[in-house]
Amino acid sequence: MKLQDRVIVVTGGANGIGAALCRRFAKESPRGIVVADLDEANARAVADQIGGLAVVTDVSREDDIVRLVAEAEAHYGPIDLFCSNAGILVLDDPLDQVTTTPNQSWQRIWQINVMAHIYAARAVLPGMLERGSGYLLNTASAAGLLSQIGSAPYSVSKHAAVAFAECLAIAHGDQGIVVSVLCPQAVATQMMDNVDQGQNAAAVDGILPPEAVAAAAVAGIAEEHFLILPHPQVAEYMQRKTSDYDRWLGGMRRFRRQLLGL
């Protein structure tokens, strides 16, 4: 998809990858960009920089996403590209366990990292299907293809996000709907501030600036690739995983012991 003259919505657009996406998309001369986020001040700051529209949105609430879509379309017209980008990280608590994280933490990450994608697709798909065209870009993570040592909730929710995107692509690809999942490893965002870098498996191939991830997203959208991998090494890791799952699990156990000092 070419982004010129397109109407674009980005959730989680006030900071990190979302803000970088908004700024990078603005260089493609779209019709309009909607910056959606709970962080009203930064959402408005990004929107002001790019001449876009800020809409305060809690993506864990379906009615908020329905309202977001309505406001975006009232302001700019039909949405061409919806970037369901907002996400959170919940670490295992304690870090060497995967079953003791409280239920409320699991539920919160599930609402934001999974249900928000479902709510977004439910809100925009009818119009896109009627027009016979539309693009959904869902930010997941390399953890959704591999795993995230130290965060079972993150790994599980991101796997689910990738699976839902696959379902969308399979079900609606013949109806003019294009779906991509953006799956970086470590990115220099606020989320990374909560992780001990010595124990961060995602940082093994370096930490990318958000701008590099946004550039990869634009390139992937132009080619309409399902998997957009800002860290190209992830494709090789996926091949190793699927070619010999047991060997891969053994390697991940060794890597976990190394990271956590076990």
Mind explaining what this structure looks like?
The chain has helices at 16-26, 40-50, 62-76, 103-131, 152-172, 210-223, 233-243, 245-260; strands spanning 7-11, 32-37, 53-56, 81-84, 134-139, 177-182, 227-228. With 262 residues, the chain is an alpha/beta fold. The protein has one domain: NAD(P)-binding Rossmann-like Domain (Rossmann fold). Strands 3-2-1-4-5-6-7 form a seven-stranded parallel sheet, with helices on both faces. Strand 5, helix 5 (152-172) and strand 6 form a beta-alpha-beta unit. The N and C termini lie far apart (47 Å). The mean pLDDT is 95.
* SSE string, helices as H and strands as E: EHEHEHEHEHEHEHH
Please summarize the sheet with the most strands. 7 strands, parallel
Rounded Rg: 18 Å
When the domains are counted, the total is: 1
Question: How large is the count of helical segments?
Answer: 8
On the 0-100 scale, what is the average pLDDT? 95
CATH topology term: Rossmann fold
Low-pLDDT residue intervals, each spanning 5 or more residues? none
The span between the termini is 47 Å
**Judging from the principal axes of the Cα atoms, what is the shape?**
globular
Class of secondary structure makeup: alpha/beta
Strand order of the largest sheet: 3-2-1-4-5-6-7
CATH class bucket: Alpha Beta
Approximately what portion of the residues adopt beta-strand conformation?
5-15%
In the CATH hierarchy, what is the superfamily?
A: NAD(P)-binding Rossmann-like Domain
**Percent of residues in helices:** 40-55%
Number of strands: 7
